[in-house]
Amino acid sequence: MAPAGNPLGAGLQRREDIVTWQKSAVDLERNTLTVSPGKTQGYDNPAHLRIVMSKALREVVLECMRSPVASPFLIHYRPMARNRDQIKTKEHWTSVTPNYLTNAFTKTRDEAHAYDQLPADERPTFHEIRALGSWLYEQQNFPQEYIQTLLGHADEKMPKHYQEGHTEREILYVDVSADLAF
After folding, report:
1. Does 4 score more than 50 pLDDT?
2. 178 located within any domain
């Protein structure tokens, strides 16, 4: 179980897992949200998380639960039109696809003007925020096994990959001389 007050526990989940969270995974009395990351389910030690909701996460979950759209999913929407072919590819007509979530994140990030100083192609993506969260956990000395479980990875190689690249690398100079004879 995540330590109490862990605000990022849900922030390390894959977009594929976030868009399939069922409302039934929420326990408001215990203040928890359960998730079983899909990519770990075929392994010997699948991950099953009970995330203690921070105040901010609980507020978002409550907003999702109050939605007037009848959907089994926490994250959902009412499409402008119900295209039969599009509906066939989804689990439910209100479900959000991973790409839709990514695009909505990008649009919201840009509307918030949080990264206007950066060129559009250099602004953090949904996936990069996940990697940053992993690195922040590492910097705060959380055990790698814990971070691995939050990320929904079956082995320790991928969390290490996610944690790389968030600090400036030290420049190592090689001593050479310019004594080439002409």
Report:
1. no
2. no
User: pLDDT for 70-92, tens place per residue?
Assistant: 999 999 988 877 677 766 777 88
Q: What CA–CA distance (Å, rounded) separates 6 from 8?
A: 6
* Side chain identity, residue 149: T
Task: Give the Cα separation of 80 and 61 in Å (integer).
Answer: 23
Q: Which long-range contacts (CB under 8 A, 24 or more apart) does 62-70 make?
A: 62/28, 64/23, 65/23, 65/26, 69/94, 70/94
**CA 102 → CA 16, 46, 69, 92, distances in Å?**
10, 25, 21, 19
Please check whether residue 163 is in contact with residue 148, taking contact to mean a CB–CB distance below 8 angstroms: no
Q: What is the CATH classification number for the domain harbouring 55?
A: 1.10.443.10
Phi, then psi, of 141 in degrees rounded to 5: 65, 30
Provide the 10 A C-beta neighbour count for residue 82. 9
Q: 70 lies in which domain range?
A: 9-163
pTM score of the predicted model: 0.70
Q: Which residues have a Cβ under 8 Å from the Cβ of 133 and sit 6 or more positions away? A: 8, 11, 12
State the total domains in the chain: 1
Residue 54 lies in a domain: yes
Domain membership of residue 181 (yes or no) is: no
